[in-house]
Amino acid sequence: MKRVVISGIGAEIPSASISNDDLVATFNGWVERENIGRTERGEPSLPGSTSAFIEHASGIRARRVLYPEGVLDIDRMAPVMPRREDHEVSIQAEFAAASARKALADAGRAAADVDMVICASSHLQRMYPAVGIEIQQVLGTSGSAIDLSLGCSSAAGGLHTAFNLVRSGAQKSVLVCTPELITGHLNFRDRQTHFIFGDASVSLLVEALDDGEEREGCFEVLDTRLWTQFSNNIRSNFGYLARLTQANPSVLDMEGLMITQLGNKVFKEVTHAGHEFIIDFLRDNGQTPEDIRRFWLHQANARMNGMILRLAFGRDVDNDRAPIVLGELGNTAAAGVIVALDLHHRDMQRGDYGLICAFGAGYSIGGALLRRL
Ligand code: COA
């Protein structure tokens, strides 16, 4: 078996930020308009949203959006995306390539050194050609490419796959790209979810070490793990069969097809499962939470991460031990855990251990135990 390293990390964060106050103002403006005449018709009024609730319940203060135009327009409440012709680079491949180039530069590698691309994202722009193959084309990587999707654990699932392919010798250098354009599938008129998500693209370069090679400053991947268990509590019903269940198959009505979740159930069930996953995974690697210098956890909810860590440590742990990046970025789905890694690893010392742990729809949980070289 080969030793495996993450040799490059790249994150592309959109510059446009939308605050809770701005999002809530649009949402409440829409609610006010929708409520006109409801009382007269004997229908219950729709409740508004508040910034105070959002920050208290999730820790989110703002989110970055790749295409902000249209999100705060009460008549649209969805991003306006430019149309790309078939011969042009698709938006998701372009977003992936932006973080991939940073990961390659971080590793000091050329695109041609890569022999596989895995596009690992909770949402994929189309079914085929695989978005990964387009990323391969845009970057000029060699070998092959595939798409992989596992909700908010997609990046961790991609890393798990890359680790095992490289460790076994099947591939030498795998680029895992996670371009999360999740605002494109978010219902900004749904009070339960309108505030949750933001966009971000991340990439990891996963490579084999040659015999006796030490790549100082890289993270060696010591082990990875995936856990899944079916749940409907986070669900998207969008898919190629959806139009066939509607009266007019030529015009797709998106009502009921975007992300829905029973947030409270997810919070409780995934906190419990995430805690158990971490303890078991570390134990099987001869470690305890105290041995881990840094936890890069999924960035969905600051309270949820706090609770998982409190269960693991028996006390509160600070932001240095387990950084939270969702405050200004929102939940960037599968990208969040790698954004946390990208922003919070440079101070780690040789020999320090770190744990990636992502969790979300599926349910799914993915982890990776790292050691700084
Ligand atoms: N503004 C104001 N109040 C709101 C609101 C909003 N936008 N949305 C819900 N509320 C209200 C509810 O009506 C409810 O009021 P009630 O107690 O009077 O009935 C109250 O706030 C609590 O609602 P609930 O849905 O239980 O909120 P919560 O505390 O569970 O927080 C989430 C909601 C989504 C932030 C939280 O459940 C969460 O983050 N869950 C995990 C999500 C996750 O990890 N998903 C993985 C996918 S990546």
Q: Give the percentage of residues in beta strands.
A: 15-25%
The residue fraction in helices comes out at 25-40%
Secondary structural class: alpha+beta
**How many E-type strands?**
13
Bound molecules: coenzyme A
Low-confidence stretches: none
What does the average pLDDT come to? 97
Would you give an account of this structure?
The protein is built from 9 helices and 13 strands. The protein has helices spanning 20-35, 51-58, 91-107, 131-139, 154-168, 263-284, 302-313, 326-329, 336-343; strands at 4-12, 17-19, 62-64, 116-120, 144-148, 173-180, 200-208, 219-228, 234-235, 260-261, 294-297, 353-360, 364-372. The strands form 3 sheets. It has a 9-stranded mixed sheet with strand order 5-4-6-7-1-8-13-12-11, sandwiched between helices. Strands 2-3 form a two-stranded antiparallel sheet. Strands 9-10 form a two-stranded antiparallel sheet. The radius of gyration is 21 Å and the shape is globular. 45% of the residues are buried. Coenzyme A (COA) binds at residues 49-50, 53-54, 57-58, 152, 191-192, 234, 261, 263-264, 266-267, 270, 300-301, 304, 331, 333, 360-361. Coenzyme A (COA) is lined by residues 49-50, 53-54, 57-58, 152, 191-192, 234, 261, 263-264, 266-267, 270, 300-301, 304, 331, 333, 360-361.
